[in-house]
Design a protein that fits this description.
Elements lengths: L33 H20 L3 H15 L4 H32 L5
Helix pairs in contact: 1-2, 1-3, 2-3
Keywords: Membrane, Transmembrane, Transmembrane helix
Protein name: DUF4190 domain-containing protein
Organism: Nonomuraea maritima
Length: 112
């Protein structure tokens, strides 16, 4: 038995018309990258800081990002905690490198 769409009187206002009878299923759930996408970004940026800036702290941040990536689907709360640590280490490494760069620039040791 197929269901017929309900009767819609001619000239009914738009808001009073029922939705069409055909359906394609429920809408997809909202796309949330969650900890997986953030872990990939943290991993890439930490590795770039190791290679590009010789930031040794980036190794620790990359390790935490890999651990977060492994736990992203099974333990999302733990993954988020690991990501906070990864971002903190990344920021600390950049702060140390910027401080070192400024110190060397002020003392004139960059000219050598």
């Amino acid at each position: 038995m197929s269901q017929e769409p309900p009767y819609i009187p001619y000239g009914a206002p738009y808001g009073e018309q029922p939705p069409p009878g055909h359906g394609y299923g429920p809408p997809p759930p909202p796309r949330d990258g969650g900890p997986t996408a953030q872990a990939i970004v943290a991993l890439v940026l930490n590795l770039l800081s190791v290679v590009g800036c010789c930031n040794i702290f980036g190794v620790g941040g990359a390790v935490l990002a890999v651990l977060a990536l492994q736990r992203a689907t099974t333990q999302p709360q733990t993954a988020r905690g690991l990501l906070v640590g990864s971002w903190a280490i990344f920021g600390l490494g950049l702060l140390v490198m910027a401080t070192l760069f400024v110190f060397l620039g002020v003392t004139g040791r960059l000219d050598d």
